[in-house]
Amino acid sequence: MVSESNTGTQARRGRATADILRALIVISRRGVADARIANISLSMTDQSILGYIVDHPGCRSTDIAHAFRLNRSTVSRQLAGLTKLGVVCEKTDASGRGRPLELTDSGWAAYDEAIGILQGVVDDNLDDWTDAEVARFAHDLQRFNTGAAGETRPRHPLEAPPAPLDSAP
What we know:
The protein is mostly helical. Helix content is 61%, strand content 4%. The chain has six helices and two strands; from the N terminus they run ααααββαα. The radius of gyration is 19 Å and the shape is globular.
């Protein structure tokens, strides 16, 4: 039997996790909207794929499909659009199926511009936070994004490889 105090704790935790989800959704929407002012407007999916290619030089479309848990045909369609846009290309000196992907000069410019815009928004929003608050928030987000043990999710383009949690502030 669940005690009344446990029920209250579970309800508060449920409300808090729902608040976290809503905040993450708003942050994502704002990020996409803010990045639309870039010279080449990239969707969140486009930004994620470019970030994956940056983080995993020489990756192939199948690697992206696996990392994002998408069907290969979905990734192929996205990559076709990014290729047509001129931001991604296959390495021409590679042989075999599934050629390695790389950003074009335009791709690097679009990626850097979008990340710069988003970094500016983050910097502005954290401007009045103390260094300790920013460090703790970064640690908590990294912990959240690490997920369950053994889970493999693509990291954010600016995220450094995970540090041990015991080195947290």
